[in-house]
């Protein structure tokens, strides 16, 4: 009989021969795993929980700082937008102390007629613009939140009048009122009462302009006339070299000379007008205050 062959086991059950290289590789992996297991220390669960809690607190703190910063930025931005909006604009403008200048002219000069935002109102700049008006000497500006601006004006005081054009046969056609600095305050077609006339070698310009330097001596005298005889002075004239003379209602002429020692000269004039016997055409000469004289026509 033909000997029967033993059936070979299935391929999946066959044992595979392991090579030396595979054995070495397995040993190395096992050694490395044991080394890692030994190198990693075991952490106490309580310590691990504490570390986690600290990490969470730090995260929450950083988040709180970020939220606070964002809120501050939003508040500042919102406040700036609100201040620069029409909700807080200069809608109520109050003018105080203005007798000769209309409120509308003050508001127009101030630049507040367009009701700018309150944050854009610069009090110093507004005051400077208002002070360009002819009658305004000084101006102060203050803001009254949320929508008000108050402009307080101190006006100039006229001390004399000047002929605005050469004399015509019927007299000057216009007059200009001026203050002690020579600033032209107003023009008038008729001669204003209660003010002394300046006879100076210059003619005034438009309101808010100034007389030339040659009018300085006459302005100084007009601004310092004593009450004792100021009402008797009709005109103050300036001649060559700054020589000043007064024309009175008596009619008497007063030669003051220059404006040096003006106070002493004015005292001499007051004394002579009060005690001396004067007639029309007399000339009082106080150019030398220590030696006043009176001469007839």
Summarize the structure.
The protein has helices at residues 20-39, 45-83, 103-110, 123-130, 216-223, 262-275, and strands at 92-96, 136-144, 148-155, 158-163, 175-179, 184-188, 196-199, 233-238, 244-248, 253-257, 283-285, 293-295. With 297 residues, the protein is of the alpha/beta class.
Write the layout of secondary structure elements.
Elements lengths: L19 H20 L5 H39 L8 E5 L6 H8 L12 H8 L5 E9 L3 E8 L2 E6 L11 E5 L4 E5 L7 E4 L16 H8 L9 E6 L5 E5 L4 E5 L4 H14 L7 E3 L7 E3 L2
Parallel strand pairs: 1-3, 4-7, 7-8, 10-11
Antiparallel strand pairs: 2-3, 4-5, 5-6, 8-9, 9-10, 11-12
Helix pairs in contact: 3-4
What does this structure look like?
- The chain is built from six helices and twelve strands.
- With 297 residues, the protein is an alpha/beta fold.
- The protein has three domains: 44-83; 88-155, membrane protein fhac (Ubiquitin-like (UB roll), Roll), CATH 3.10.20; 158-295, Rossmann fold.
- The N and C termini lie far apart (190 Å).
- β2 and β3 (148-155) form a beta hairpin.
- α3 (103-110) packs across α4.
- 33% of the residues lie in helices and 22% in strands.
- It has helices at residues 20-39, 45-83, 103-110, 123-130, 216-223, 262-275, and strands spanning 92-96, 136-144, 148-155, 158-163, 175-179, 184-188, 196-199, 233-238, 244-248, 253-257, 283-285, 293-295.
- The radius of gyration is 50 Å and the shape is rod-shaped.
- The strands form two sheets. A nine-stranded mixed beta sheet has the order 6-5-4-7-8-9-10-11-12, with helices on one face. The protein has a three-stranded mixed beta sheet with strand order 1-3-2.
